[in-house]
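Database export, one record per block. Field names are fixed; values are copied verbatim from the stored entry.
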Amino acid sequence: MDVTALRAETPGCARRVHLNNAGASLMPTPVVEAVQTHLTLEVQIGGYEAAAEAGPAIEKAYAAVADLLGTRPHNVAFTEHATAAFVQALSSIPFERGDVLVTTRCDYASNQIQYLSLADRLGVEVVRAPDVPEGGVDLEAMEEIIHRRRPRVVAVTHVPTNSGLVQDVAAVGHMCRARNILYLVDACQSVGQMPVYPEAIGCDFLSATARKFLRGPRGAGCLWVSDRALEAGLQPLFPDLRGADWIDGDLFQPAPDARRFETWEFAWALVLGAGAAARYASKVGLPDIEERVRKLTDDLRQRLAALDGVTVLDQGARLAGIVTMSMEGRAPRDLVSSLRERGINTSSQTRLDAVLDYDAKGVEGALRLSPHYFNTSDEIELTVEALREIGPG
């Protein structure tokens, strides 16, 4: 991997040490150009007209995301962000009172809130599989719950936003396939930093975003929908005229492919940016990206663990490009501010971002550092030295 060349194509590297790729990564030049070119076209000829002229390029964006996921364009829908994609998928499941939804203790906070809303409104029972002591869902317990409770759906976050944990979503997919149970995977933090192939995972839906490790623009996401889900007629609770045709007074017909999960109004410049980001990631190579991110984060965790007053919070047999830590006497948000003054981008979380996980770890939140492949060992060292200088409160 030619990191120097990749950094040259990332203008933000000249201004910041960017370790907030789990929040929003720095866009490379081809992504920026894709967005700006379309916005310029909208200025020159009009929004609808620009979308029509960009039709072939938009189709290439679907193909680029499909290639990244090892699938076909008809299984891909674009959305505004990962949560919108996740909600569209969840809304397509015909829940009845008493149905069971099985998830994990480490699922994303927004997803957990949505599960609880289903419980309040529809009487869906939410069952969380326990974790193993070393971190991550207990697969034996998960399989027993699935076998005994026969849930309507199983939903798992691949890489939680609050730790470096990588859940074994393929193992859960095998359990669901064996029992013909719907399976929804949130891949918001994994797409772009490692190979993610939904058909190999065995899921029915997979949601993702452009802005994080994929290095696309904010305001664009996608939903992968399996052929099984399409053939079963699953469709969002509130489709609109892009996702369905109103063919008679009392009858509508959903689109034949994943675009039934889309809505009419899109920021097409951002969709084109997402397509450019997918092409860029495929060109760099997902296995190489995963290897470099792992090396950088392993180094970062080791260096942080050696600092006085610092506790590295990540747990799990397999860890990804998110490093979480706490420092004695320092609020995470204050650490973010102190580092930003030094030109280092990070992010912070509070207990409300991961109630179950942070309560179990005995902390009120965490500083989150998320390197990507364009970061360097020098930047890791600089960040650690900055935290050493700040020190415990």
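Remark 1: The longest strand covers residues 100-104.
Remark 2: The radius of gyration is 21 Å.
End of record.
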